[in-house]
Amino acid sequence: MSILLAPLALFFLLVRLAALVAGIVALIDAAMTPAGAFVAAGKATKQVWVTILAVTLAVLLIFSFISFFALAAVVAVIVYFVDARPALRRARQ
Fold first, then answer.
1. What residues form the membrane-spanning segments (predicted)?
2. Total number of domains in the chain
């Protein structure tokens, strides 16, 4: 590998690992949240979110990070953390 490409490869590896960790955290958080909180927050059901996040994790493990599928998976994790998770926390209080 060229010495110029090594930092770029390291960057993509770190971003991929961060996305995997975020996906695992999101999946565990969604799985541990009571189903009633999803309904109270007006979000998709618990089954839907757990399925989306499980598929997201599988996609991040299978595909290269710079693929379209991995990008869509990262967007799903971001949507969970930015939109669904705060609403679920408010609904649980």
1. 49-82
2. 1
